[in-house]
Structures are given as C-alpha cells and as structure tokens.
Amino acid sequence: MKYAYCLVRLFLIVLFFDSTFAMVTDGEFDKYVHAGERESVDGLFSTVHSSGILDPRFFEHEHLLDFRLKNILESKGISLDIVFTGDFVTNHSGGLKRAGSGIDTSISYLSNTDLIAEFDTEKAGFWKGGTFHGHFFNHHGANPSEDYIGDLQGSDNFESEKGTKLYEFWYEHSFDLYGTDLSVLIGQHDLNSEFNISEYGLLFLHSSFGFNNEISNNIPVSNFPVAALGFRIKWEPTENLYFMAEISDGDPGKNNGGFDWKLDSKEGFVNFYELGYHFGDQEESRTMPGTYKLGWWYHTAEFDDVRDRDENENPIRHSDNYGLYFIADQMLIPGEGKKGLGAFFQIGGVPSDRNEVDLYVGGGIHYQGIIPAREDDILGLAVAHASISEDLRDIEKMDSHETAVELTYRAQIFPWLAIQPGVQTIFNPGADPDLDNAVVSIVRFQINF
C-alpha cells in the first residue's frame, strides 16, 4: 500500500504544479506580476490549449504538462520527454511461491522514469540532417522474476537493477544518396530500439515480445537496462525496403551510471544485420499494412560449450556465436483509421551446443478499438516459447521449455495517461521441474509528462 500511496502523491504533486502553470496563464497571478514582466511570463507558460484541470481540453493534451515553452523549444530543435512507468506485479501461484518457503508473494512494485532529449541541428540553424539523442532513466523497486517467479524469460520488461544512469547518447546523420535515404549513427545505442522489433509485440508486458529470448538470454548485448557503444548504418533504397547493420561492444557489462565505457577485444564485438520490407499505411488499417524482417547476428567472443568438457573437465570453448531470426507484423481485419485486428510472429534459432535457449517462437494477436467508443484501447493475446538446448538437458535436470501466455488490455484513459492490466501463465518457469506453473498479474500505469 505504501507504493500505491507514493504513486498517488506523485500524481497529486504533478497536478498541483500543472494547476500553478494554469493560474499563471489565466491571470490569477496578475497582482504579483508587473506589467512589464507579463509578456515574458505568458510567453513561457501560457498554453496553446489551457492546461487548467477544469478545462475539458486538459484531458486532450498529449502531455500532462502541456505549456508553450515546450513548443518554443521544439521550434528551436530541442525536444524533451519525461515518461513515468509504474508496475504492480503479483505472483498468485506457482513459481517460487511454495508453502512454507518464506518467499514473500505480496504485491511487488517497480517503476521507471525516463528523460529523453533530442537536438535537431537543422531546426536549430546549424547543419542539415543531424540529430543528437540523450536518454537518462531512474529505476527502483522489486525484481519479481528473480525473487518471486523464477522464470528465465522475464515477466516484466522493465525489471532492472536500481539506479540512475545515462542510458543512451548518440549522434545520427542522414544523407540523400542518389535519391535514396542513408543514415549513420554512432554512440551509446540500444540495439533493440531498431533491431528485432515487432510493432504489435511492443504492446505486451513480457520481455520476450520486445527482444527474442534466444538472443537476450544467451549473449551479452546492448539492450535495456544497459546500452553499449556502437556504430549503425541504415540504407532505404525505396520507401518500402531497408537494410541496416550495427557493430557494438560485445559485453556492455553493468555500465554503472552510463559512463563506464570499456572496449576489450577479449569480450569481442556483436554484429547485427537486418533486412526489412513494409507496405501499406500504418495510420490506415484498410491498406492492410504489414512488415516482414529477416535478421542475423554474429558475436566474436568465445563461448563455453553447454555440455562437452576437455580432459581437465573445463568446458570446451567455441570461438564465436551466431543466430538467425524472422519477424512479421500483419493487419488481418481492418477497421476505421488504426482500428483492426493484427497479428505478429517471431522466430529465432541459435546453435544448441553453446546456448541455453536454442529456439524461440512467439506470436499473438493485437486488436485496437475492440470497444467502439474507445478507438485507442488495445487488447492483446500472445505466446512466448523458449526451447531449452537438448545438449544442456543431457547434463542438467531441466524441462524442455518455458512457455508464457499473456492476455493484456491497454486502456488509453487520456492521451497522456494509460493503464494496462495483464495476466500471464508461465508454464515450466525457469525450465525447472521443481517449480509449478506460475500465474502472474501486472498492472502498469504510464504517464507522459
């Protein structure tokens, strides 16, 4: 209950400051502001649409704090976004919840606050085609998969170690290459912000629908909560076709604070390549939009064999690791605007001799606007199946797989506030035969300031 109280208190504090901005706008502070100062105050804090909470347009804003200063900064090339995400996670049964085990199965809470800033060099009056990007986040709260559930895929995609860090910092430059689009990016970059993404899969709270588990579970890779130094190039020869490649640090480590950069040839490098084809208008479902992606990756570090040992009983070392994946998003039954029924599919495979998970298959359905009066709400049902390497099962007492089924509904209460309850059934958590199937619920609150 103390976490719920803190969340409510934070919300009320934000509303208080927002109301204060509105009072400045509406003239309540006139008696405290000299006439000569009035214009400058209005220029900074008056809103395009009044942000007073009694004004019904307040609930139509894209951001909770919708004031003119933000628009002024954007016109100068500076954009700032603050997003707060709070999750309440409960393991109702199974997993690490055993009678008399002493495991605390009460509601656990975790939250993430992201500050994202971008600087457009062309809008700022400098050179054309340049973008600087910075992303800080603060994370605190429980670790439900580690402490309460025991699953290997990760029930909550925001689970992380506590702390505040610089997550991403990169520069991207875009070119016109003989009538085609070419861009290069260099800096601390999250691979999964561009590679191995299903747009429909992003709805779900489970981690594997964001980054295939045969990748995230087996190799150190640039992905939340730790991004790595990298160089990415993307070429779009047509509006419908793209190819991109990235090379990045093979082991970003913990990177505490986001400034602990270390490049070591012993840790290797990871190379990602992705070819994608998309068609239709994503804003208009009646065009039957679809996206298909084929990706492959190669890691240059050494990896232990999961089963075989040498004469000294040390694991045999493999000089590399690699994998292949395919992702599809397809509208199936269109509706008005973005509304309609879509589906996604993920599959990826890796060598079974050096990886715990050798095959991942995921997919599901995504229905936007299933309730006619709520066209921005989304209902989703999806399955994530991680197959355990048979080589590993030869020597370890493990089940053949861990499979998660998630049902979730994202309700867009206001443009700046979403509430998303979800329930997951996790079969064979951790592929541990001693653990019963787990039933987990998550309620997510997300506020765009």
Q: What structural class do the secondary elements suggest?
A: mainly beta
Q: State the CATH class of the largest domain.
A: Mainly Beta
Q: Give the averaged pLDDT, no decimals.
A: 87
Helix count, per DSSP? 6
Q: From the 3D coordinates, which CATH architecture of the largest domain would you assign?
A: Beta Barrel
The residue fraction in helices comes out at: 10-25%
- State Rg: 24 Å
User: How many domain modules?
Assistant: 2
Low-confidence stretches: 1-54
Cα end-to-end separation: 24 Å
Biggest sheet descriptor = 16 strands, antiparallel, barrel
- Assign an overall shape: globular
The total count of strands amounts to: 18
The amount of beta strand, in percent, is over 45%
Please name the fourth-level CATH homologous superfamily of the largest domain: Carbohydrate-selective porin OprB
Strand order of the largest sheet: 1-2-3-4-5-6-7-8-9-12-13-14-15-16-17-18
Order of helices and strands: HHHEEEHEEHEEEEEEEEEEHEEE
